[in-house]
DNA sequence: GCGGACTGCTTACCT
DNA sequence: ACAGGTAAGCAGTCCGCG
C-alpha cells in the first residue's frame, strides 16, 4: 500500500463527463445495509445515492440556471449539480472541478495519526490537513486534524469506514452532497451559471430601496446585519415557473380493493398518464383483448392525446422517453408505488436497465433524467399540513387534499379498473395526473415557490427537501451556519454529556420536561372578551433570552447567576447563541417585514402573494424551532434548551396574568401564550402591552375581541362569537372529525343559533331554539331516522392492524371484522363504524344494519356534544330535552 | 361471578 | 422522527361483595 501521509497531494480524477451522454448505468443501491441495525448516534442513516454516469448535458459555458439538486456521482466519484435552464426549459449539469473531497475531523494530531496503520492504509484515505475551528461548547478555538478521503463511503457508511476507525470523529455523519453544498456556498434554489467550466453564482437583482428599508427595519440589532445580507437573495430572488409533468399509472388488477404489489410488479401496466404544465397531455394505453375503446368520456378534455400500444414493453420504453423530457416529474406516492412499479415491471419485461431512467432505494424513487417530487411525501409533512396549509386537509390522500385545496372531487369508479373501456380508463388515469400537477399550480404556483424557498433556507436539494421533515431542514440550516462561521459542528453525545438532563417534571407521564400552563377556565358566558397573546412566543423567547445549545449552561462561571425560572439552568451573558441568532433573525424578518408586507394593499398582488409565501415558509421553521431541541434524533438535541424555553414561557404568561390582575382585570382563561380578559378597560390593555414589552421583552398583542365567549369547565374547549357574528370553536366534540354527522349537524345548528345572540336577554330565545334542535335530534335517534352514514364514527388507524396488542379499540374491532372479508388496511386509513347492541358493540358501516344500532349510546353521545356548550349556559341537557329523572338514559 | 373504581391505551384536539 | 397539555371513550384489571 502506497504511503500517502503528509502534505496532501490529492488524486487526479478522470475528466468529468462532457456533452450528452447516453450510456448511463443505473443500479439498485443497497443502503447502509451493514449498519442499519445500529445507528447509535443521530444523523445520517442513509448513505449517498450513487448516480452513475448519468445521461446529462454538461456544457463548458452556460447561462444562469436554478440549482435544483446537488448529488454524488459514484462512477465518477464527483459531486455534481443539476440546474434548470428557464430559457430552454431543460436540465443542465455541472460536475465538481474544484477537487473537493469527503472528509471528517479528529482531535488527534497528525503525528499520532500517522502511526494509525488502519487509518493510513485505508484504501480511501487521502491525507491530513491541520485545521483550526471554533468550538462553541467550550467557547474556545480548537486545533483539529482534517482527514480527507477519496469517496463518501470511506468516511462513513461501511463497517470499516474511517469514522469507525477513529475513537471520535466530528462531522463524519453529514452526507457528502450536503457537505459539498456548505463548502462551496451553493444555495439550492438560486441561480448559477457555468463559465469556462466553473460554477458561478449569479448576483440577485435586489432593488436597492427594498434592501435599504429592510436594513433599517431589521438592522437595528447589529448582529443581524451579516445574516440579513446572507438571506436577502434567498427571500427576494424570483422563482421561475419550472417545466414539469405529473405521472400516474394504472395496473391491471382483477381483484377489487387490492393494491398491486410494486415489488413483484406481476400485473400489466395498462395505462400511464403524463400531464405537463405546458399543455401537453398524453395517456399511454395498452390495448387488451375484449376491451373496447368506448366513447370519449364526458369531461375528458379533447386535446388529451391517447397513444395506444399492443406491446407493454414498447409502451413503457416510450413512457420513459417521454418522462425524460421533463426537468421535474411529479407523482402522488411515486416513491412507493408508481415509479417503483414502473421500474420493477420494466425489469420483468426485460427492458435494459440503461433504458429505465429510475433509481430505487429502499424508501425512495429517483429519476436519472429529472428531479422526482413525490407530492404525497411533501403534503404528508406535518409542518406543511399544519402551518403552510393551516390544517385545511386532514387526510393525506390525493382525493382529500385536492378536495380541500383545489375544491375538486374525484369521480367514484362504479366498476373495477379492469372493467373500464380504454377511454374511460384513460380518463380515470388522466385525472389523477391532472390533479397532481394542479397541486403545484394553484395560487400562481404556490407549492413550487414554497418548495424553492424552503430549499434556499435549508440549503437542501429539491429531492431531499420534499422528502424530509422540518427537523431535517433546521438541522441542515444550522449545519451550514456553523460551517460558514468556521464553528465545529458538535457531536450530539457531547452536547448531551455537557448539558445534562432536564430538571422539571412533566405533567404527562413519560414526557421529558414540563410544558406550558393552561389556566383553569371560569365556566359561564362572558360578554365583551379581549384575547391578548404573545406574538410567536417560543421563537421570541429563544431570541430575547439567548437560548442555544452552547449558551444554556455555558462554560463561564460568571454567567451562572443568570438563572432560568423554575430551573437551575443558567444562560450565557457573554456570547450570542447561534440558534438564538438564526431563529431570532427569522422571527424578526417574518414579524417585522414579510407578515405586514403580505397584507400591505399598497403593494401589487403578486408582491403581496410572494411576501405571504415567504412569511409562511418562515413560520414553518419558527414553529418547529423549539420542539426540535427536545427531540432526540435532532443532532443539536439539548433538553435544557427546550426546557428553558417552556419555563420562560410559563414565567412570561404567569407574570402577565399577575400584572393584569393588579391592573384590576378579570382573567377568565388562558393557554400557553394567551390570556382571555373580560370587560377590559382600553387603558389597562395598553398598559399591560407596554409593561410586557418593557418587563418581559416579548410583544403582547390583541389577538381578537369576542362579543361573548362560552367557557365550560374544560380546558382547551370553548366557543366564541366575534363582534361580527362569526364563530370560533375550539376542541368541542361537535367539531371533531370523528364525530358522526348527525351530531355534527345538530351541533352546527346550535352554533348558528348562538351566533345570533347579541346580549344576555337573547339567550332565553336561543335556549328555546337549541331545545328544539336537541329534542328533534334525540327523537330521530330514538326512531333511527338517521342513515347508517349519519350514525357512523370515522376513526383513523395509526398503525398496522396486528400491532394493536395492548387493547383493541372499537375502530380496530370494526376493521378486523372487515379484514376477515379480505379487505386490507394500512396506517392512515379511516374506518367508519356504528355502535350496535351485543357482540363487539361495533360494526363497520359496510356490514351494519340499522336495526342493530345502539340508540342509548347515541343518545349519550348527543348529550356530551351539547353539554360542552350548555354547561356554560347553565342549562342541563336532560332538562332541555325534557326527560324526567324516571326516563333516564339507560 | 359481578359491578364499580381505577389505570392505561388510543385518538383527536390546543398552543 | 418538533414539543407538552387536555378531553373523551373504551379496554382491561383489581378488589370487595355476596
Structure explained in plain terms:
There is one protein chain. The chain has 890 residues and is an alpha+beta fold. The protein is built from 28 helices and 27 strands. The strands form 6 sheets. Strands 18-20-21-19-22-23-24 form a 7-stranded antiparallel β-sheet. Strands 1, 2, 3, 4, 8 and 9 form a 6-stranded mixed β-sheet that branches. Strand 3 and strand 4 (90-95) form a beta hairpin. Helix 14 crosses helix 16 (470-484). The longest helix is centred in the C-terminal third of the chain and has 24 residues, at 639-662. It starts with 49 loop residues before the first strand and ends in a 9-residue tail after the last helix. The model is unreliable at 1-45 and 884-890 (pLDDT under 50). It binds a DNA duplex (15 and 18 nucleotides) through helix 16, helix 21, helix 26 and helix 27.
